From TrEMBL:
<keyword id="KW-1133">Transmembrane helix</keyword>
<feature type="transmembrane region" description="Helical">
    <location>
        <begin position="7"/>
        <end position="31"/>
    </location>
</feature>
<keyword id="KW-0812">Transmembrane</keyword>
<feature type="domain" description="Nucleotide-diphospho-sugar transferase">
    <location>
        <begin position="393"/>
        <end position="614"/>
    </location>
</feature>
<dbReference type="InterPro" id="IPR044575">
    <property type="entry name" value="RAY1-like"/>
</dbReference>
<keyword id="KW-0472">Membrane</keyword>
<dbReference type="Pfam" id="PF03407">
    <property type="entry name" value="Nucleotid_trans"/>
</dbReference>
<dbReference type="InterPro" id="IPR005069">
    <property type="entry name" value="Nucl-diP-sugar_transferase"/>
</dbReference>
<protein>
    <recommendedName>
        <fullName>Nucleotide-diphospho-sugar transferase domain-containing protein</fullName>
    </recommendedName>
</protein>
Amino acid sequence: MKLKGLGAGLISVWLSGFLLIALSFYGTLLLSPSLHNPYFPRESSTAPRIIIFTALHISSSSFDSQAIHSWLALSSQVKVVLFTQHNNNSSLTDTFGSRLLLDSTVDFTFLGTPFLHSMLARTEAYASDIAVLIDPHTLLLPDFISALNHAHHELDRDWLLVSSSVNIPRFPFHWDQTGHFWRQYNGKRVRFGELQKMISLQSNSSEEANMIMAWNNVDSPLHCGVLPPFLYQRGTHNQWIVNEALSCKRRFVFDATSTISSVSTGNAEKKFDSRNWEYIGNSHLGKLYGSLSKSYALPKLLKCNKRYILVTASDGFRTREKISACISRSKSRSLKLEPVKKDQAVSPLKLPYDLESLLPLVADKNRTVVLSVAGFSYKDMLMSWVCRARRLAVPNFLVCALDDETYQFAILQGLPVFFDPYAPKNISFNDCHFGSKCFQRVTKVKSRTVLKILKMGYNVLLSDVDVYWFRNPLPLLHSFGPSVLVAQSDEYNTTVPINRPRRLNSGFYFARSDEPTIAAMEKVVKHAATSGLSEQPSFYDTLCGEGGVHRLGDDRCVEPQTNLTVHFLDRDLFPNGAYRDIWLKEDVRGECEKKHCYVLHNNWISGRLKKLERQMMKGLWDYDASMRMCV
Ligand SMILES: *[C@@H]1O[C@H](CO)[C@@H](O)[C@H](O)[C@H]1NC(C)=O
Ligand SMILES: *[C@@H]1O[C@H](CO)[C@@H](O)[C@H](O)[C@H]1NC(C)=O
Ligand SMILES: *[C@@H]1O[C@H](CO)[C@@H](O)[C@H](O)[C@H]1NC(C)=O
Ligand SMILES: *[C@@H]1O[C@H](CO)[C@@H](O)[C@H](O)[C@H]1NC(C)=O
Ligand SMILES: *[C@@H]1O[C@H](CO)[C@@H](O)[C@H](O)[C@H]1NC(C)=O
Ligand SMILES: *[C@@H]1O[C@H](CO)[C@@H](O)[C@H](O)[C@H]1NC(C)=O
Ligand SMILES: *[C@@H]1O[C@H](CO)[C@@H](O)[C@H](O)[C@H]1NC(C)=O
């Protein structure tokens, strides 16, 4: 008995000694500053892999490399993905090394503003344990990683962390790249504690624009809704996501503002500059879509005596009282979120650009634009066409809206759009197909608009939205030279000349802004105005003569008064919808790729729905209307 007791005593002494040694060893590990990372404890092997996503607006001239330095310094487990329009900026990759990845696959508006839904969809392509979405001007300090680690290890369900930054437009320190710490401008090293203190003393939390979001299980969606095409960092979308994530209940949403020191140094973009409409557009989208509009209080992640505590609104009084003493010592900041107000009236949107001011914004260096004209019944097809243009990196497209619904819709999709006030009203939804009265009126808008643009000094490739593009035809079309109007042939018979009477397709043609073309287009428009037919016969009869008297060879015409040559495009490269029954082929895309087609026209079919169906069934469709984005 005695011996046994003694043995147990010895063992316990020995054990506790061992424990002490182990603990102190562990403590040393924690406290010893890592050479590369003076603010940090050493990383354990269970450190989560973190990817920080952000995007650069083309307009953000004041790109702040300090922010990215501060992120990469957080931990070697951090990678940064920067969405930009060009992934060839070697100065960026040289500065930041291989942990910075440039990604140019997301969609941007014509003004270079990235689409949030496109960015978030893309985040799933990167393997990580935690994804972070952050403003490119926000500096992070090490307690960010501690908060993420806490969430990663302690929460037993999927989560979404949100945190707001303080606004310090002129951050008084600079990053020492070799030493991996901040210095004052007199060269003195800044301690982490000083930084933290400085931040916690700031009473002005910045607006939700500078909200940080982080979430785990990156393959699982943040919310149950479908993100509308919000413009990144143009307001509303952060509230919207928090709203939706809360109402969806798939993730635990909490506010970690008081445990995360982050500084927004962005020279806070003024809301009331010329891009004000981008904010208004986002606010419209927020009102149009989404579910929750109640006020709410997020659970908060707090830190008390070096321990993290989660406090929810429903936690009892005692808990709150217990921690309140601790919190009041360091002023606790929290996120200010206004719920998206849904009941307010949505006033019509207007772009601050008309045709004249859009042209220089979108035209390429050859002063060429690609024009499409669309009414509301073709809005999905317009979007598919736009998505295709984006995929092919054709930046110089322009949309003429035939009605106000299309105009509003296009603004919300971030398209360069103008409204034709002379467009016929009352365009019927399903029956505006080839040959109908409606069709005749609509087509006349097209030639008139093209003429207007030519007169402003820009070349125009007119492409109907039912023309599917396989590759960019502009370089080829340019090669025909001046005084040549290049058009698709509508001839389907393979044994006859392609310039036969009335076979000029006015749904796909390239017109140069030169004297002969402008003079000839004026004749076309004049002819169409007095004709009871669509504009297509006016094109042919004016340019090739009635019955084709001005034909030259098998594929051209020369209009004698203006000397404009009309060149009909090779149908193997630019097939119309009836040529060689291409649309009946099993594999339309394969067939076209074999022929090296540039475009394929989805014409020679009657009815809007049949047309849509044919294009979708054959896989020549690039817009997912249910996800509201390009696919
Ligand atoms: C990057 O690519 C874009 C378009 O592809 C081009 O305009 C730009 O000049 C390129 N920049 C560099 C540095 O190569
Ligand atoms: C590359 O990025 C840096 C930092 O944003 C910027 O200053 C520079 O103009 C960019 N260079 C090109 C060619 O885009
Ligand atoms: C905080 O905000 C108020 C008004 O919004 C402003 O007058 C004040 O200068 C700000 N303080 C700091 C430290 O930025
Ligand atoms: C609009 O269309 C409807 C049906 O096609 C027709 O009855 C009505 O008169 C049209 N209104 C105008 C202003 O053209
Ligand atoms: C611009 O014009 C030049 C000269 O005509 C041509 O070589 C080039 O392909 C054109 N670029 C585009 C994008 O059309
Ligand atoms: C094509 O044209 C030839 C010659 O005019 C004619 O004999 C033939 O029937 C036409 N084919 C079709 C499918 O219309
Ligand atoms: C068209 O070409 C002919 C012969 O080359 C020439 O005599 C005539 O002046 C030209 N017309 C115009 C409008 O340039």
